[in-house]
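Onboarding guide, step 5: your first structure request.
Type a short instruction followed by the sequence, for example:

Predict the 3D structure of this protein.
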Amino acid sequence: MNSVGLRQHIGAPAPNEVAKNKAVLKPSKRDEVAELFSWLFGMLSTKAVISDSRQISALGDVVSSDEALKVLRATRQMEEALLASGVFAIVFAVASQRRGQRLRRQNSTSPASAMTPTCKVTSSGVPRRSHDCKRRATRDWPSHSSSDG
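The system replies with structure tokens like these:
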């Protein structure tokens, strides 16, 4: 199991600490193991909280946060638990920071006219696809099959 958060939740050792013919899980963690299995596979009366094995890392993030774990136990809603874990806030902050860095690099290496096209805009606010603004229009604005005249 690669998720440190899930291993800690059920008291499992790291893979390199597992020895042949030696018990891996402590009997005191039986409830946590059953809880993890219910989140992964569901139970008779409840569905699994994840739908894809690629969500296991996110589940590990959730159980690593006391607040998110409370939300998951109360609601069995992965999205709500992730919001409570703060993972989305961290991802958003990192993405925003990277975008800002890209824009600063782009502004420092591109002439100002490349970032501010001088093209006419349609009544809906979408630039016309002219030579002056085609690059920016295709990159930053949605594509429209017809243009206003």
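Each response can be followed by summary notes, for example: The chain has eight helices and no strands.
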